[in-house]
Amino acid sequence: MVEALAVASGKGGTGKTTSTLALGMALAEQYDVTVVDADMGMANLLFHAGLADVETTLHDVLVEGGPPVEAAVYDRYGMSVVPCGTSLADFASADPTRLRDVVASLATDTDVILLDSAATLSSRAAVLPIVLADRVVVVLEPTIPSLSDGLKVQEYATSYDTGTAGILFNKVRDDDAIDRIAPKAERYFEGPTLASVPASDTVRAARRAGQPLLAYAPESAAAEAYREAVRGLSVRDGDSAAVADRFRSAVVPESL
Ligand SMILES: Nc1ncnc2c1ncn2[C@@H]1O[C@H](COP(=O)(O)OP(=O)(O)O)[C@@H](O)[C@H]1O
Ligand SMILES: [Mg+2]
């Protein structure tokens, strides 16, 4: 079985990478989880997951004649993690559309694929993870501009037949009146509010330590919020072969 979820938001800095690894670790208690850094132009998942020094990354795999994806899969924190390199030259020589084959190949051997995504509204190329995913988890900060960006992400997703698994509020402060905002947001998004993750120095400290939040501070309120999010996220039971076929034949937006 397999379902591919893109963790997405309109702009950068909302906490997509942090959330991808946190949701991944929480899901890994139940499922076989593979996390892919599909933010290929501004990859930084490797810094969040202690993988900054690895030899082979997704960039190498995406180059014509490159190694098979297995060479870029690392067992970390109970998950399979596929980091992406940070060199602009490598990004230039990589063919992002090959991500289809990479995800298809990973789909044959995992339960859940989480695609850490680029800010969707930043470029046409950034929609690729949304095109490939079954559903998106939209990461929002509890502000009107962020909600509005998130709705655009959902609009893109819908136009590629990608559903909304839920929304995740991040960097929530006590004075954000989240109790008022979340029910309103639910009227506009197709999926439920999965959790509200507090703004917290612990989350930043985990990033500085190069560890996913759930490894660095498993008892923190933020970590608990991600576990709660996963309790509300019912992973669907896709047929691996059918899902792999779909990825391979996905129609990639023209300007990629
Ligand atoms: N809940 C939070 N509280 C405080 N800082 C956070 C929180 N979530 C993320 N951050 C910080 O915000 C910055 C951006 O997070 P990141 O996950 O890299 O966002 P994105 O992938 O969306 O660009 C990082 O420095 C991260 O540590
Ligand atoms: Mg990121």
Name every ligand kind in the structure.
adenosine-5'-diphosphate, magnesium ion
Largest sheet report: 8 strands, mixed
> How many beta strands in the DSSP annotation?
8
Please give the domain count.
1
Helix content range: 25-40%
CATH fold type: Rossmann fold
Number of helices: 12
Annotated CATH homologous superfamily: P-loop containing nucleotide triphosphate hydrolases
The CA-CA distance between the termini, in Å, is 29 Å
User: What is the C-level CATH assignment?
Assistant: Alpha Beta
Write down the overall geometry.
globular
What value does the average pLDDT take? 92
Q: Tell me the fraction of residues in β-strands, as a range.
A: 15-25%
Describe the protein.
- By secondary structure, the protein is α/β, with parallel strands linked by helices.
- The chain has one domain: P-loop containing nucleotide triphosphate hydrolases (Rossmann fold, 3-Layer(aba) Sandwich).
- It contains 12 helices and 8 strands.
- An 8-stranded mixed sheet has the order 3-4-2-5-1-6-7-8, with helices on both faces.
- The chain is globular and about 55 Å long.
- The model has no long low-confidence stretch (mean pLDDT 92).
- Residues 16-17, 39, 44, 116 line the site of magnesium ion.
